[in-house]
Design a protein that fits this description.
By secondary structure, the chain is an alpha/beta fold. The strands form two sheets. A three-stranded parallel sheet has the order 1-4-5, with helices on both faces. The chain has a two-stranded antiparallel sheet with strand order 2-3. The protein starts with 7 loop residues before the first strand and ends with a helix. It has a domain at about 1-20 and about 120-190: Rossmann fold (3-Layer(aba) Sandwich). It has helices spanning about 25, 30-40, 45-50, 55-65, 65-70, 80-90, 100-105, 145-150, 170-175, 175-190, and strands at about 10, 110, 115, 130-135, 160-165. A hairpin with a 3-residue loop joins strand 2 and strand 3 (about 115). It is built from ten helices and five strands; from the N terminus they run βαααααααβββαβαα. InterPro entries: AB_hydrolase_fold (IPR029058).
Length: about 190
């Protein structure tokens, strides 16, 4: 692995922190969400979108009106919502290769925490491989994982970069800034 990787760039990495023991006490989850989660747990996360059929697109538009606002400089219609809908409404393939949705379901425990958090294993990675963690400053993903990775790899290069004005889709929210940071990292490798 180490002879093939010059620098690892983790963009908005999911699955690093462990679910805190007090997660439910810090942010109580309403009983109706718990009930809905129990009912839907046997299904893949986007099954509801497929069940909605032709109403699925309006569901995406209603649940995520930010898509239209966020990308208004590029599109003056519902292109982004339609793209998200069509990408996610496809039924998972019934082949041996994991579909992303099925893989995500198999890797999570309730409320989106990782079954096997990466912070438990990151110290086993070759210490000579530099890591840069890139987050959107307004992201829902825990940005503290970068500093935790650094503490778990004290003799390795670990850098955390926060892209101002970006949320979870950092590469789409601030594409110029994101591309510049990635290019700088790539230039430093060669």
């Amino acid at each position: 692995f180490a002879n093939r990787v010059k620098h690892l760039i983790l963009v908005e990495p999911w699955g690093f922190p462990e679910r805190p023991d007090n997660a439910e006490h810090e942010r109580p989850i309403p009983i109706w969400i718990k009930a809905l989660g129990a009912i839907l747990s046997p299904f893949n996360p986007l099954a509801g979108l497929r069940i909605a059929g032709p109403f699925g697109l309006s569901l995406v538009q209603r649940l995520r009106p930010d898509f239209k606002r966020k990308y208004s400089s590029m599109f003056d219609d519902n292109t982004v919502a339609e793209y998200i809908y069509h990408c996610n409404v496809q039924s998972p393939r019934r082949v041996r290769i994991f579909h992303g949705e099925t893989a995500f379901k198999n890797m999570t425990i309730p409320y989106g925490w990782a079954k096997r958090p990466m912070l438990q294993r990151i110290s086993q990675m070759d210490r000579d491989i530099p890591i840069t963690v890139v987050y959107g400053a307004r992201s829902c993903i825990d940005g503290n994982s970068g500093s935790t990775i650094q503490s778990l790899r004290p003799n390795s290069y670990v850098k955390t970069i926060a892209i101002l004005g970006a949320g979870h889709y950092v590469y789409a929210d601030q594409p110029e800034d994101f591309n510049e940071k990635v290019k700088d990292i790539c230039d430093s490798v060669d």
